[in-house]
Amino acid sequence: MKRICLLILGACAITLAAPRTLADPATTNTIKWEGSAAAGLTLTRGNSHTLLATASIVDDGKWQQNELTLGADGAYGKSSIDNTTSETAETLHAFGQYNRLFTERFYGYARIDGLHDGIAAIDYRLTLAPGAGYYFIKRKTTDLSAEAGPGFIVEKLGRSQKDYVTLRFAESFHHELSDRARIWETAELLPQVDKFENYIFNFELGIEADLRQKKDFTLRAFFDDSYDNRPAAGRLKNDAKIVTAIAYKF
After folding, report:
1. Model confidence, pTM
2. Considering the domain 2-249 in this protein, what is its CATH number?
3. pLDDT per residue as tens digits for the range 165-195
4. Where are the domains of the chain?
5. Which of 27, 50, 181, 188 is the right S-S partner for 79, CB 3.0 to 4.6 Å?
């Protein structure tokens, strides 16, 4: 299943290599792409030696009544104290989502997520989720949408391998605070259909500001939280991180 994550990553790379266009996506079949790549690095030296590196890439394509988003992110960390080195982060996540607009606000979607988290003993988790969504707010500076539908998860936690049917409820909010600053927030709940006590909850809250008038480089900071009510044996239910990074928009 790690290969699935890599395949999604490859799809992202192919998309980023596609020609960018300034054509109006509402009136042509030409896709208009808007993407960003970000990287962050934290180092400490002294009594302890630590390293935490993060990277992410997201690309959005729009044409006529279609929306396509591809993205990938990862984190790697390690610490060394008294000549003892241990990993503190090892994650790889990739996703793709296609939306088909039936009206200006109502749409159907299909989504795929792939996750590997070595510290949480998630060897792989593949999530497939079709459904329907609605834009409650859809303006140039603000959008708020909600999604709901069924889902299917295949995963290996520690030595346990299983698959099950879920529901998926998600919400997404973006708002431009000014011409050079913006915030975003996303939430996702995935409860198992026949065992509601087995659920996954993902949440992210972030802020971003342009570093130059050209708006090509930005500084972003975000809080990311993932809660698995039934984690792998010997692991905690909650994983949270705060990340700051420099991003480039293309």
Report:
1. 0.85
2. 2.40.160.40
3. 999 999 999 999 999 999 999 999 999 999 9
4. 2-249
5. 50
